[in-house]
Amino acid sequence: MLTTVEKDVAHTRLQAAVEEMCLTLRRASRSLYVRDAADFACAVADLSGRFVAYPQDVGVSGFVGLDLTPAIEAATVHGPLAPGDVLLTNDPYLSGGLSTHLPDVHAIAPFFDGDELVGYGWAFVHVSDVGGRVPSSVSVLNDSVFAEGLRIPPLRYVRAGTVVPEVEAILAANSRTPEANRGDLHAMLAALDTGRRRVGELTADLGPAGFADVGMFAREQSAARARSALRTLADGTYRFEDYLDNDGVSSVPLRVVVTATVDDGAVHLDLTGTDPQVEAALNMVTFGRAHSWVVTRIFALIGTLDPAVPLNGGLMDVIGFTAPEGTLLNATGTAATGVRHATTSRVNDVVSGALVQAAPEVLPAASSGLVVPVVFAAGDGSRVDVVEPMVGGTGARFGADGADGRDSGISNLSNNPVETVEANVSVRVLRYALRTDSGGAGRWRGGSGLELEFEALTDGGLLARGLERLRFRPWGFAGGRPGALTELVVNEGRPDERRLSVVDVHALRAGDRVVLRTSGAGGYGDPLDRAESAVLADVAAGLVTVEAALEAYGVVVRDGAVDAAATAAERTRRSASAERTHSLGPERERWERVFPSALADQLDAYLRTLPTATRAARRREVLGGVLAGLPDRFPGVAASEEKLVAAEQAFAEAVAAVTGAGAVPAHTTP
C-alpha cells in the first residue's frame, strides 16, 4: 500500500506529465488556432474513464470533467484496445457526449503495463475544417449535424503504432485544410506518446495497483476539497434566467433557465424551463448528464474558493444536473451543435446569476458572455484561419473590478499575436484594443470588452460564430450597471456600411473593413460609491470617457484631474441605491414585461408535451404572433405604453389557449 505522501508525489508526477503532453502538442501543431490560440488540451485518465491529471494552465480548462468511457465502449464493441492503438472521434452523439461539436477532434490512447491496461491518455484539438456547408465547418445557420461536416464515430486512427492509411485518407478528403489538420492530429499523437512514456515510468515504479490507487486518491482529494469549498455557500434554492439574442432562424430570443440547489457542499443545476432545441447550431448534447462544458462556472467557483484544488474528474462528484430531453442543453436526434459555446456561455451567466444570491461576496456579475472566433476564409477556400478568438470582460465582484478583455467563462483561449495574424492571414489588423465605455459601471467596474478592426486584403468570407449580446446586456449586480452591447460592422461610416447580427459566411471584398466591439461585463455595487481615484485612473487609461465618468459615476474630470467640489455636489444631488439585485438593462426589462417568467414557464411545460421536432417552431409561432404588434427591433427599441399593454395581453391569452384548450390559433396577433 502506498502512503499518502507517496500518492501525492506520484500525482505530482502525473501533473507534470500532462503539462509536458500539452507542450509537446502545442510545439508540434500546425494551425494558428492550436499553436497560438491554444484551443487544445491533454489529460491522463484511470480505468474509470475520468481524468486523474489535467493541466492547470495550458490549453482549454473546461473539459476537465469529461468521461472517456462511452467513447471507448463504442469503439471496442468489435474487440479490445491493444498497445499502440489510438482512437479518434469528433461526433457529440456517437461519442456519448465526449466531443461537443465536429471540429473538436478527440484522441484516446490506452496505456498498458506489459499486457495489463492501466489507464488512458487523452488529447483534443479544434481543427481548422472538417468539411460541411461552410469554411471552418461552423455556422449558426447549419440546421443539422449532417450540414456541419464529417462525423467520426469512435474508431481506431492508429493500430498497433501505425496510422491507418484508409482513415487518414477519409479525413483528408473531407476537409478544406487537410495538411493543417494532419499536422494537428499528428501533434496529438506526439503528445500521447509523451504521456505513454511518462505513465510507463510511473507504473514501472508503482505497478498497476499503485497507479490505480494514485488515480482514486487524486479524484477523492479534489472531490473532498470541492465539497469543503462549496460548503461556504448558503444552502438553499436559487433561480435565474437569461437570453440568447435569437434562435438562429428568426428574431425570437432563446431563454436559458437554471434553478440551483446548494446543499451541504454540493450544487445541483436544474435547467428545466430552458427553451427547446432549435433548427440551428446552438444546441448542446449532454444526454441529460452533468457535462464538463456546461458546468464550467462551478469549476471556476471552486477554484476561486480553493485556488490550489487539483483539476481532475473528482470535481464532477459535487455537481448534479437535470436537463429535460429535447432542450438546448440536452439535444437529441441530429440537431446541429457547432455554436454550442454561445449557449453554454449563457449557462455560465445564469449559474452566476443564481449562485450570487447564495454568495454575494464571492460570485461576480455577468461576464461579457460571448466567445467569437473571427474567421477569415480565403476566396478559393485554401486557407481558413481564425483572426482572433474574441471575448469580452469578466464581471466585477465584491472588492474587485472585472478583468478587462478576458472572460472567465468557457474560454481561456490565448489571443493570436497581431504579427502572426498578418503573416499568416490575408488581413491587415488596424486596431486591437480594449473598448472604451463598455464595462458596466459600479463601485467595482465590469471588465471592458475588446475592439478588433481589420481590413481584408483579398476577397473572402467572414465568419463570426457565437456572436451574442447584441440585444441583451450582461447584467450588473447590487446596483452595478450592465455592460455595453456587442457591435459587428462592415465598412463603418461608408455608404455601404452593414451592421451584422447573424453571420453565416459574409462575403468580403479586398479593402472591406470589419470592426467587432464585444460586450463589456456587468458592474458590481453603486457607481456613486466608486473611488474618485479609480474613475480618474480609468479615464487616464482610456477605459472610461470624461462624459461617462460624469454620467455613470458622478465624477467631474477637468484637465486630467478630479474636480473634488463639483464631484461632491454632483454625487450629493443624486440618490444612491445599492440594493443587492440584478441590474438587467432596459432591453431585458422590456422583454420580461411582455413575456414574464411565470407565463414563459407555462408555455415551456406545454411545449414539452409536443414531439421534439415541432417544439421550437411552435414557440416561434406563439411569440412571433405577439412580437408582430411591437416595433421591429423590440426590445432594443422601446414600444408605446399602448402597444406594451396589448402585447402583454396577447401573450397571456396565447398561453391560456395552449394550457387550457391545448392549441393556439395559427398566427395569433394582439
Layout of secondary structure:
Blueprint: H1 4-28, H2 32-35, E1 40-45, E2 51-53, H3 69-75, E3 86-89, E4 104-113, E5 116-126, E6 155-159, E7 162-163, H4 165-173, H5 178-230, E8 236-244, E9 254-263, E10 266-270, H6 296-305, E11 319-322, H7 340-355, E12 372-378, E13 384-390, H8 418-424, E14 427-434, E15 450-456, E16 460-464, E17 476-477, E18 487-490, E19 498-499, E20 506-508, E21 513-517, H9 532-541, H10 546-553, E22 557-558, E23 561-562, H11 564-573, E24 582-583, H12 586-594, H13 597-607, H14 612-627, H15 641-660
Parallel strand pairs: 10-11
Antiparallel strand pairs: 1-2, 1-5, 3-4, 3-6, 4-5, 6-7, 8-9, 9-10, 12-13, 12-16, 14-15, 15-21, 16-20, 17-24, 18-19, 18-21, 22-23
Helix pairs in contact: 1-5, 4-5, 13-15, 14-15
Overview of this protein structure:
The protein has 670 residues and is of the alpha+beta class. Helix content is 32%, strand content 19%. It has 15 helices and 24 strands. It has helices spanning 4-28, 32-35, 69-75, 165-173, 178-230, 296-305, 340-355, 418-424, 532-541, 546-553, 564-573, 586-594, 597-607, 612-627, 641-660, and strands at residues 40-45, 51-53, 86-89, 104-113, 116-126, 155-159, 162-163, 236-244, 254-263, 266-270, 319-322, 372-378, 384-390, 427-434, 450-456, 460-464, 476-477, 487-490, 498-499, 506-508, 513-517, 557-558, 561-562, 582-583. A 7-stranded antiparallel β-sheet has the order 2-1-5-4-3-6-7. A 5-stranded antiparallel β-sheet has the order 14-15-21-18-19, covered by helices on one side. The chain has a 4-stranded mixed β-sheet with strand order 8-9-10-11. A hairpin with a 7-residue loop joins strand 18 and strand 19. Helix 1 (4-28) runs antiparallel to helix 5, helix 4 (165-173) packs across helix 5 (178-230) and helix 14 (612-627) runs antiparallel to helix 15 (641-660). It is globular.
